[in-house]
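tool=predict chain=A
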Amino acid sequence: MEQQRPDDPKEPVVDGVGPDSREAEDADLASGLAALSQLSVSMDLDVLLTRVADYAVRAIPGADGAGLTLLEPDRADTIVTSAAFVRQVDDIQYSIGEGPCISAAAQGSTMRSGSLGGDSRWPRFGPRAGRLGVHSVLSLPLITPAGVVGAMNVYAHGKDVFDQRAEDLGEIFAAPAAVAVHNAHILAQAVRLAGHLQGALETRSVIDQAIGILRSRGGGTTGEAFDRLRHRSQTGNIKLAAVAAAIVDEAVRRAQARHSE
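tool=predict ok
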């Protein structure tokens, strides 16, 4: 058998990972980043967040599932997951207010653990996650120039699954993921605001119609008709828009009845 000469080149092994494995991991990361770049911010926010979590599982070596939390100051946080077991684990940490995702978002730094059951940073969360058979986690804050917009949890069932290389790859993936999430969030906020404005315009229109009906019935000024409308709202403990809509609906029914006769 031919002996390898001392000057033959040898492929280096870094952190126990051979060159073939590193190439495969790099390819997975590139695939995840490419998929991330194809996301459209116009898609439903929950759908986009879930796809980001799915791509994280593809991009980070050893991942069995991932979850993503979007922080919304004026609304309940949006939480999505790529697998059912991730939902179970995330429900635990958010119900008790303790866990790696919460720490990552609060501190703006990556959290990594290979033995959640014995991790002193989360003494209540860790053992519960361990009992579900989830022992490793990599929590990555989603950071933009505007600040921390959320965090991404990547879980594995085995112990010590995520090493420094997995953390490095995760942080590479988290940077563009944060931008995608932030942009989608801004668009979702704009859509919600447009909906609120449209609703306000429609409500104003109904109130104006009700005022006109009350004036036609009892005379008086616009201000007096509005006062009568507001009085009905207060005495009946009913929203002003609902009272106005009832008056308009009643007038429409009367007009239709007269037309039928």
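The chain has eight helices and five strands. Residues 19-186 form a domain with the Beta-Lactamase fold (CATH 3.30.450.40).
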